Amino acid sequence: MFLIGCVYIDSVSILQIQEDGTTQAPIAKAGSIATFTLKGHIICKEDHGDVQFIVSFLAPKSWNVRQNATVTYTTTLATNPDEELKMSVVPESSLPKNGGGRTWGEALMQDYGVGPNVLSDMEWVTFSTDDKWAIYNGDKPDYTIYIRTNVGYQNLKAYLGFFVNHTDDGLSPTDTDHKKIKFSDTPFEVVGGKGLLIDYSSEHFNKVQPLASLQDDFVTFSFNGGVFQNDLISSNEIYFEGTAYDDNGNIIAQVNEKTDKTLLKRESSFDQIYSLTMWPASFFNVPEGQVIKKIDYVFTNKDRSIMITQSDDDFAVEGKPITGEKNPFVFELLCE
Question: Which domains does the chain show, CATH number per domain?
Answer without folding.
Answer: 6-195 (2.60.40.10), 203-332 (2.60.40)
